[in-house]
Design a protein that fits this description.
By secondary structure, this protein is of the alpha+beta class. It contains 5 helices and 11 strands. It has a 4-stranded antiparallel β-sheet with strand order 2-1-3-11, covered by helices on one side. Strands 6, 7, 8 and 9 form a 4-stranded antiparallel β-sheet that branches. Strands 4-5-10 form a 3-stranded antiparallel β-sheet.
């Protein structure tokens, strides 16, 4: 089984522009996630699509594997965290976003790591709007999410994430584009 991170897009009812959210799922193949995607964002209806995805196998120098709950591989003291950084650029009437996946021992360390990013350091307007870590579907400083907390109960019942040495693991490939759900492979 594989851990996937998907960027979802949809023409949400009553909105002027396309909306986006992130989804973490576990499956053998990307197409196997379609029922879970529809359940995750039912109000999107037929406009729901994937704007990008990544099979998460390596984060920093750590390998990421999905194993059955009864697998005897020991738990790692480190956990996989997801952060959605938000910031502003002079002259742009929009909030910029930057996603961080990091392996750390605590939420506080995950936030510290995210604040080291070039995005966090450069996407703020001094004295007006500083870079921040978003709430709810991203995260805020008080609620940095472990990926385990973002997985559905059905996934957590069957699987767990194992973190190991990933120095020999190739970098994850990021797939970008407009992927209709019925065309996922």
């Amino acid at each position: 089984m594989k851990l996937y991170l998907l960027l979802l897009g949809a023409g949400a009812p009553g909105r002027n522009i396309e909306q986006h959210d992130y989804f973490f799922g576990i499956a053998n193949e990307l197409k196997d996630l379609v029922p879970d995607l529809k359940a995750f964002w039912p109000e999107a209806g037929n406009t729901l699509h994937v704007d990008g995805y990544r099979e998460v196998t390596r984060v920093e120098n750590w390998s990421i594997r999905v194993v059955p709950q009864d697998d005897e591989t020991p738990e790692s003291a480190n956990k996989l965290f997801f952060l959605n950084l938000g910031g502003y650029t002079t002259g742009k009437l929009e909030e910029q976003h930057y996603i961080v996946l990091t392996v750390q021992g605590t939420r506080a360390l995950a936030v510290q790591e995210a604040k080291k990013s070039l995005f966090f350091k450069t996407n703020s307007l001094k004295g007006i709007a500083t870079s921040h870590i978003d709430e709810k579907y991203g995260v805020d400083v008080d609620n940095v999410y472990q990926i385990d907390d973002l997985l559905s109960p059905a996934y957590k019942e069957k699987y767990r994430i194992v973190i190991g040495d990933g120095t020999e693991t190739p970098e994850d490939e990021i797939h970008l584009g407009y992927f209709k759900l019925d065309k996922l492979k």
